[in-house]
Amino acid sequence: MTFAEHISAFAQHLEVERGYSERTLAAYTRDLREFAKLYEARENKAPKVTRIDNFDVRAHLAELYDKNQASSIARKLSSLRTFFRFLLARGVVDANPAASVRSPKRKKALPRALDVDDVNRLMDAPVPVSDSASESPALKLRDRAIFEVLYGAGLRISECCGLDLSDIDRDRYSGRNLKQVVMRIRHGKGNKERIVPLGSKAMEALEAYLAERSALRDPRTKTQDEAALFLNYKGGRLTPRSVQRHMGRYVIEAGVPDATPHGLRHSFATHLLDGGVDLRSIQEMLGHASLASTQVYTKVSLDHIMGVYDAAHPHAQKRGVSAVATDERSPSGCGTNSGDD
Hints:
By secondary structure, this protein is mainly α. Helices cover 49% and strands 2% of the residues. The protein contains 13 helices and two strands; from the N terminus they run αααααααββαααααα. It has a two-stranded antiparallel sheet. The longest helix has 22 residues.
């Protein structure tokens, strides 16, 4: 079998036997094809899995250093390790040449959480203009609903775009009487399902969007995706890339620095922690497999608390007493501090 054929067999194994998502399969395949391409360019011959050794893997990583971050290199190395582990288990190779190669050290960057004022400005940016001839009000209502859901439920962007109408328990919603409205996440990381609560602001934004959702149809066929919750202007399911592009425009309009869809997820977790919610509950809502992944927010929250302390405590104050703001949009329901951080 050629190297490409082994990649195809590996991808089929991940899809059928391991149940990996399309995005994960694409990432593994892309990394392995890149390895084969660089190997051929370096050695002037196509790679053979039985002849790849430790030095070939190291040479490959060395070529990646100039144009890739440490996190990307580590992921590509992981792809090679998993690929050769698969071949080793099936007796194709005698050893895993990537097993002994150490991953590059990665900087552990803390997630950036927005303060409440920045969240409010971003949420208020998509304002529908009733007399606009160039853009349907449904698009701005949709964008606002997306931002509210990302922040109000702490979703990953892929989870948000994967939502169906049937995933929202709208029967429990009546005006501002939530009656414990919940949302089902069926397309979580690792294909895990979970149930998350949805706050009043998110539900209000969703109801406003859903009242105009029928306007988002294919201009030619007059059809739309009947299942998807969030639609593009042609009535098809909205993609994560589109959400990122739209948010980028609103970030400029609102003047909110460094706001991203994933940043709203970080803000959700940090503000909940600031509001007194325990880590285990936050872990469940975020869909983290390990509590260690959630514990990073304790450092983010501590930095925020220390900033508030420095600004407000009489014996630590440097710039005068700072007001402590609260907002009903906070996912904790009890508001969060918004002093200097």
